[in-house]
Amino acid sequence: MNDQTLMKLPVFSLPQDRLLTLNVDDIPVMKDALGPGVNFQPLLADPEAGLLVAITRFAPGAHVPAHLHTGAVHGYTLKGSWFYKEYPDQLQTPGSYLYEPASSVHTFCVPETNTEETVVLFVVFGANVSFDETGKFHSVLDAITVQNLVKMCSERQGIAEVRYLQGGSVRYTTDK
């Protein structure tokens, strides 16, 4: 608790006994978790709120199948470049901010000519419903799926515990 929480405010607020903060450098990369060359670091996975926040890392030439967003998505490119197959002339580069409304459909692609990994911060509401190249259902990616992917990837990579924020009463997955 800090001194500011001791004051009497004219509004109700949730109790908070500590600052919920993470350093990306302390979070291991879940390798090939979302397909070959598609890695991520979980920051927040809250199934109850339908919210997922992650740093996603893409190798040159990596792609994500066509997918439909059930909720809005915010993307901020930190490094490298990428585009949607449906909009090849709109290359996303460092500093690009992208808003994707719910029900949008697209295919994520990283140019094979990239010389470095592409790093994007994604804030995802709802789920990504993915389809194969024939339009058949492929998979769902949402906060609960990510929680399970973190468990599977950390076991496969020999990582004891991965610390990120999770839903319910928002908390860390593990204490330090």
UniProtKB/TrEMBL annotation:
Its taxonomic placement starts with: Bacteria, Pseudomonadati, Pseudomonadota, Alphaproteobacteria, Acetobacterales
Instruction: State one Pfam family annotation.
Output: Cupin_7
User: What region holds the ChrR-like cupin domain?
Assistant: 34-127
Q: What is this protein called?
A: ChrR-like cupin domain-containing protein
Q: Could you tell me which species this protein originates from?
A: Oleomonas cavernae
